[in-house]
Amino acid sequence: MRVEIYSKPKCSLCDKAADVVEAVRARIPFELRLISILESPDLFERWRYDIPVIVIEGVPAFKYRVTEAELEARLREVQGGMSIAKTDAQDG
Question: Do the bridges between strand 2-7 and strand 53-56 make them parallel or antiparallel, or are there none, so unpaired?
Fold first, then answer.
């Protein structure tokens, strides 16, 4: 399973989201990729007002804030083969 966090340096919400993701990753193994939206103009344009964005298996799942319980529940859904329920984060 692959999880990506779109963020940027000096973003306190991004740092908090990364801490939550790492805490959950200690219980549920997955591949994690941290992506700075400053890496490309396209990423910056797409996500600049929404960071942090947590993407699970290519599907935006959370933006701004996430709790360990929410993330763990969503990851278990994906592991079990269930589709990811649409959230507000998926409108971007």
Answer: antiparallel
Residue that has been written with the tokens 């193994």 in this structure:
29
Residues 19 and 53: their CA atoms lie apart, in Å, by: 14
Instruction: Please answer whether residues 92 and 50 qualify as being in contact, where contact means their C-beta atoms are separated by less than 8 angstroms.
Output: yes
pLDDT digits (tens, 9 = 90+) for 70-81: 999 999 999 887
Strand partners, 6: 35, 53
- Give the helix ranges, DSSP H, for 26-61: 41-47
Helices (H), 1-92: 12-25, 41-47, 68-79
Contact 28, 79 (CB under 8 A): yes
Q: What is the average pLDDT score of the chain?
A: 90
